[in-house]
Amino acid sequence: MHIVVIMNPKNKIPRHLFIQQDLLKKIQSGEYAQGQLIPKETELTKIYKVSRPTVRQAIQYLANDGYLERRKRRGTIVKQQKINQEFTHIIESYDSEMNRKGLHPRTQVLTFKIDKATNDIANHLEINEQDEIYKLVRLRYAENKPIVLVTTYLPLKLLPDFLNNDFEQEKLYSVLQKMNFPVLQIRRKLDVVKADETTSDLLDIEEGNPIFYFHSIGYTHNRIPIEYSISKYRGDINSFIFELNHSA
Q1: DSSP labels for 189-203?
Q2: How far is residue 202 from each of residues 128, 139, 168, 169, measured CA to CA in Å?
């Protein structure tokens, strides 16, 4: 049941702004939940007793601010708010970052096995091609939504008995720390690519949607590469913070 809002003629707030603020309150309170359709424009004109262009203007402002999204043949939905990822300038586990943001993290291990290094992997880990490596593929969630698909390669010769770890429960960087190979420095490269069929299925997005594609090399003591990871982040609900310092 919708409550009819009576506009006060003495109120100097423009009607479209009043509607915008009221819709935003409903979104932030959860009355209009993420992924939910808000009432149609014709219905909103009756609720707020205004013209359709006024309603459309309020909706457009919220769409521009990233709160709403118009869908063809469906209507207007409440968008998933983007998660600001800060790992571009902070060495921190995924679980720790999500917990700090008040989001519940979960990890699903898709693959964890011993493999052979390709030329690309060998170059990044500074080992020989065909050397034995660990291949760890994890699908990581926040609040039950898949956020990022991570494939990590680690040199087997430095990490004996590594397969004994359960990375659905344990944090990779914590395990490396315990094994005296802490990640002290990371080098990352960012690309934006289109999701292929497998990635789109795992991340629950449309094939061809943009994804953030990170190549990361984690270095331990004496700048020895201890991990090489390829991370594929959903482009629709992730944004990244880069912190730059002025050079002397």
Answers
A1: EEEEEE--HHHHHHH
A2: 31, 8, 17, 20
Quote the pTM value: 0.65
C-alpha 166, offset from chain centre: 23
Write down the domain spans for the chain.
15-78, 83-240
Q: Read off the amino acid at residue 186.
A: I
Q: For residues 189 and 215, is the Cβ–Cβ distance under 8 A?
A: yes
Class of domain 15-78: mainly alpha
The strands making up 132-142's β-sheet, listed across from edge to edge, are 105-116, 132-142, 145-155, 225-234, 210-219, 185-194
Between strands 238-240 and 68-71, the pairing is unpaired
The CATH class, in words, for 83-240 is alpha beta
**Rounded mean pLDDT for each run of 10 residues along the chain, 248 residues in total:** 44 81 85 85 91 91 80 79 54 62 82 97 97 96 88 96 94 94 91 92 90 92 96 79 59
State how far Cα 172 lies from the chain centre.
19
